[in-house]
C-alpha cells in the first residue's frame, strides 16, 4: 500500500479522534456540529478504505468490561453497559464500511461458572438488550440486520431464550447484513453438537428402511430393502463412542484452562477428523453395500467393519453443515480487546485462515481508530490469506 495513502488515513483518523475528544468537552449544540462533521469525515475515510479489500466477516471478543469498571471505580454492571454502547458503535461502523457479517462473543458456557449474582445481572442486562433490539430506533431496524443467536440456547433461562427466538423470527426477512450473537456458546460444544446431529441424521436415514417403513426424499432408491442389523448397530455404537471421546477431550481441555488458541485448534480438529471416520452420513456407501451383498443377502462382519472405518463415510463438510455457525462464511478478522491473544474457545473450527487483531484497549475503550487499524492490518495480509485459501 502506498505510503501517501497510509498517511492520509492516519491524518483522517487523527482528525476524528480530536473531534471526538472535543465533543466530549463541549456543549450540546457544538457537539451536534462536531457529531455531523465527525460522521462526514468517517464516511470519507471509509470511502478511501474501500479502495482496498474490506473484510466480509468481523468477529469480536469483547474482553475487559470488568477491568474497565474496576479501573474507573464503577460498579461491575457499569462496565458491561459501557461495553454495550461501544458494541453498538462498532456495529454501526462495520455496516457503514460494508461488512456483511459481524459475530460477537456475548456469553460463553464457561461464564455460567461465575458468581451466581454476576451471572444473573449479566443475564438481566442481556435480556434487556435483546428486547431493545426490536425497538424502532435500534440499529437492527436502521440497517436491516438479520439477527442469529448462536449456541446452546437451551442453557439459557426461559425469558432470554424466548426473547432470542422472537428477535430471530422478527428479523428473518432481512438480508443485507447479519449479526451473529454467540450466547451460551463454546467451540467444543458446537463441534460435539454438530457431530451428534450428523450421526442422528444418518441414523434417521437408515432406520425407516430397516423397519420396512417407506423411505422418503433422496433415499427412496433403497425403499423396502433391508439393511443388515449388525451394520446399523455398529454405526450406532461408533457414533456414541466417538461423541463420548470428544466430550472427554472437551472436559480435559476445560480442566487445563485456556490453552493457546492455535494449539487447541489443532487438537480439536485432530479429534474431530478422527471422529469423522466413525460417523455416518453417506448414503452412497450404504448403497454400495447393498450391491456388495452376497447371494444369501447378508454381508459379513468384515465387510461392515471395512465400511464403517472408511474415512469417506462422513466428510468434514458434513460436520460443518451442522455447525451453529454454518449460516455464515468463516470470519476474516477476529478482534480481541485488552491485548489478549487467545481465542478462549471461540470459533476454533472457523478461524484457521483468519487474522487475529488484539489492540491493548479494554473493550469499553475501543474506538473507531482500532477498527480502522484492524482493516488496514487485514489489507496488508490479504494477499497472504488469499494464497492460503487457494492452496486448500
Ligand atoms: C417474512 O416474509 C414471509 C413471506 O414473504 C412472510 O410470510 C412473513 O410474515 C415475513 N416475516 C416478517 C417478520 O416480516
UniProtKB/TrEMBL annotation:
Pfam families: Prenyltransf
Alphabetical list of CDD domains matching this protein: Cis_IPPS
One Gene Ontology biological process: polyprenol biosynthetic process
Enzyme Commission number(s) from the entry: 2.5.1.-
InterPro entries: UPP_synth-like, UPP_synth-like_CS, UPP_synth-like_sf
Gene3D superfamilies for this protein: Decaprenyl diphosphate synthase-like
Keywords assigned: Signal, Transferase
HAMAP family to which the protein is assigned, alphabetical: ISPT
Family named by the database record: Belongs to the UPP synthase family.
Protein name listed in UniProt: Alkyl transferase
Lineage: Eukaryota, Viridiplantae, Streptophyta, Embryophyta, Tracheophyta
